[in-house]
Request: fold
Amino acid sequence: MLFKKPGISFEWEDYLISRGLTPVAGIDEAGRGPLAGPVVAAAAIILDRESIIKSGINDSKQLDRERREELFEWLINSEVLIWGAGAASVREIEKFNILNATFIAMKRAINNLPLKPGAVLIDGNRKIPDLTIFQATVVKGDSKSYSIAAASIIAKVLRDRLMRKLANFYPQYGWERNVGYPTKDHKRMIKKIGITPHHRKSFIHE
Reply:
C-alpha cells in the first residue's frame, strides 16, 4: 500500500486503526548515505497526540541540530510515545548492501518496541521483507506522518551521537561535524590517510 497524502497529520495512523490494525508504529532510518558508520532505525508508537501536535514535531531534516536534540530528549523521557531502535553495522552493510541492512535495522527497531504493533508505517516506498506485521509505505513520510516524524528524530539523533563519540577516536575525519557523510573534508582525509574499520569500503570510490 502506498499513501501520497500531503501535510503532516495522523491520517495514515487513523486509516490503519479504522481497519482494526492497532497500535500503529512509525518507522524511519538515518544513515543510508554516509561513508562511515552504521545505519540506524527507530520505531515509534505515539500515545499522546495532543502533545505531539503542540510540540511542532516535523521531519528531522527540517529541524536544526539544537531543536532535534530538544525534541529527542522530550520524546524519549516523556510519556508521549513508546519507541525502539535498531542498527545494522558496517559489516552488515558491506555484506548485505545498504538497502537490506536498512531492513535489518528496521526489524530490530520493531523488535525492540515494548509493545508489538498491529501495523507499521514505513518512510519510503519499500516494504520490509518477511515481516509478518501489516505494512504501509509513505513516500516522504517523515513530513506527512507524526509517527514517522518522531521515529526520524530518534533515529537521526541516536546515529549522530554515535558518530560524534567515534570522532573522539578518529578526530581526523571531522565526524563530529559531518557524522560520516561525504563532505569534501571527509573525502580529502580518506585520500590522505586512508580508512578506518568504521568506513564502508563499498561506498568509497577513488
Observations:
- The chain is about 40% helix and 15% strand.
- Residues 146-167 form the longest helix (22 residues).
